[in-house]
Prior knowledge:
The complex is a heterodimer of chains A (about 40) and B (about 550). Chain A is mainly alpha-helical.
Amino acid sequence: MLRFYEIFSYLFLITTIVLISIGAVRAFHDFILGKHHEEQK
Amino acid sequence: MLGSIDLIIIFVMLALMLGLGNLFSRSVAHTDDFYLANRAMPVTLVICSLAATNMSMYNFISEAGQAAHQGVSIIWHEWTGNMAFAFCGLFIMPGFRRLNLTTIPEFMGMRYGGKAHSITAVMYALKSAGKLGLGMYLGALTGYVLVPQINFYWWLLIFTTVVGIYTFQGGMISVIFADVAQFILILIATLIGYTFVAAQVGWMPGIFEKSSADFVNFVPPAGKFDYKFIIAILFLGINAFCCDQGMIQRSFGSKNVKTLVVAMVLVGIILTPVNPFHFFAGLAAPLLNANAASMNPDAVMTQLYKSSIPTVFMGIFISGLIASQLSGVSAEINAGATVVAKDIWQRLRRTEPSGTEKLRFSRYMTIAMTMLMVFFALVSKFSGRSVVDNFLSLVGIFDTPIFVVAIIYGLKGSRINEQGAIAGYLGGAAVGLAAITVCQIYQIPDFLWWITVSAFLGSLIITPLVSRFFAPPDKEQVAKIRLSDKGTEEEWYRIIPRSLPGKITLGVIIAGGAIFFLGIVIGGMGSMHASLFAVGGMVIYFAGCATRLLFK
């Protein structure tokens, strides 16, 4: 049970790191392009 | 072990943080950019920002150090915090977000009046300074223990310079983007730290087999982190996530109510499987170091990580550790500066300052808060108490009465007037302060419970009592706030769901919460099944919160 939980936690953590990194790069890219300012205009 | 390559990694990370502030300084055109990242942040950024602010060296070092001393039950400090994240996101923050506020003192002004606004602002600035000092003290202490070639005061200077400059330049925009980078680093550091420690004691099964039964009891009937602590810290978590300026400023930076609700629920769910990595590493400390029980709880984990993690990984780990601390500190600096600039300075001026003046003053206040942080870091160093004890006392005294006055009586109630609110806020804090003094004199271990209960009951009773002697509040203002809390028919989200599946998910949330509380109560009676009920209830609660997002 504990072994299963540990493997699940590792997989969860690694997946979170990958997904957050992708999301962050996209948000950073959008921000630098000034999209949010354009949308407001 | 720490090598030259590790030092290079650490200083490259610090240089990148500085560069980030410079990059975003050009995007800061007016004060809403500086305070709230222009209220334009999408879900991913709000999640990262809230999560990075919530995770700091306090988790890696202080809380895990307490786990090494007292056992695993301090994990509820974080798990109840995660439950509180979802609770505040679903039931409290939507009403606040619709009012387009920047600070809690501003809400107090809107709901009660000018005096309540001013008094809350001064109290908030004081609390921010205290929290900043604690955070920076822990950062510099950990830096010194890990890299003794650089002493405590130099670490204090390095961290202060980096975090001060990037917050000064880029305001909330650079704070939020730095948070994202820092959150990723924190997760990587979590992986590294746990892996090298757990590998030495047979991983998770080994930790649980070798630790005593009391140490791995999630809901102990007695001790510093017993069932009463769990109830108190759950309540303080709810207080923090809807009243702590550093937290709500990130929430208010969200694009709209939907972004805010989704982000707050997901933060709670994402962090819950991550937290055990820190606490279980703490449980491994006494198995690997026979002296762990007699060491300073704020130093146990630093020593353990230092002796367990090989070079290069150590550099990345320390970078993650530093990143976690800087994110919390930068949030608090920005929060303190916002309160002083917006709620004190702007209101004291007879004429409305121009946009450039506001922005300039906000930046000056960032410097002022940074200086106060250094002062309180030195006070913390000489206080002789652990960071966890100091932090819990601070939030118990400051956050509990403001929650009662702003949320229970202010956002959700309609009868209390300004005089009652001020008396309840200050009275509750005074009662909490008296409780901590008594606890210190008599060395009471479960001090958090007594501080929280005293401050809560103090403000809960004083507020309506004083309110009765003065005129009722402005009906129009109260009606506006009640309407904002309720939301309109057209909106995506309402606290009470409109659809049947939505109502079922609300039922699941309530059932999960009830099972969790049952676990805590039977834990107090010494039941063997308490851990199962408490943890199971929490999982059901989160399942309800996640599915609640799918239905109207």
